[in-house]
Amino acid sequence: MIDMSGKRAMIAVIATAVMVASAVGAASTAQAETVKIPKGFLLTEAEATKPLTEDQAADEWWTVSDKLTKPLELNPCRSKEKPRDGRIAMRTIIGGTSAPSYVTEQLVLYPSAKNARAAFRKLRADVEKCAKAKAPQTATVAGDFHRYTGKKVNIADEALLVKGSSYERGTEEPLKGELYISGGERYVVVRRGSALVLYTADSYWAGEDTTKILTNRAKRMAKKVCDLPGVCTRRG
User: Fold this and answer.
1) pLDDT by residue (tens digit) across 112-150?
2) For residues 77, 78, 82 and 87, what is the CA-based torsion angle, rounded to 10 degrees?
3) pTM, whole model, 2 decimals?
4) How far apart, in whole angstroms, are the C-alpha atoms of residue 211 and residue 202?
5) Order of strands, edge to edge, in the sheet holding 101-109?
6) d(Cα 227, Cα 40) in Å, to the nearest integer?
7) How far, in Å, CA of 145 to CA of 151, rounded?
């Protein structure tokens, strides 16, 4: 005769374990969904939100957005698809001038380091996949084709420095027929725990200091994101 009491006890233990796991998972999901980026947290946010005089407003402008559907500021393949990388919080700041010139800051939070790592690696793969494009990514530079080159840099968990260059073929002397760089952009992308940090600008924004300034900002934010709950301790 089969002893059913032992089986019933085992089933009860398994059922309890499943319920506990589900409760923990639900709590983690709820916690992830309530994560918010504090007002004023980004490095350029104070400048982006300060009132401008009439003269200043004619020459510069800023936008601040928390929309999760915003594309990453580095978008080498110029994808228009709705992001599906699991992001749970995001802030994008874009500044522009009449030069024309632009600079951006973007912070993206994910439910785990695993999600952030996947987003970073997809971005790195896109830089390689779409290294050469027929048209530039931004409206501030014009060219016959656009090229991206990226290299790893030693910041936080993993980081990438990307250079974008627009090429044109000269139509007048002394560059007639010659291929030359007519413009470009600089991008610094950093992953720290479950966060992605992006700083971008056109190559004319701060001249030769553009890359240095963006890199320094990325380093500062890579430390600062650890002040947010779970970003540098969330497993996965």
Assistant:
1) 999 999 999 999 999 999 987 655 444 344 457 788 999
2) 70
3) 0.79
4) 10
5) 60-65, 89-97, 101-109, 195-202, 179-192, 158-169, 145-152, 132-133
6) 13
7) 21
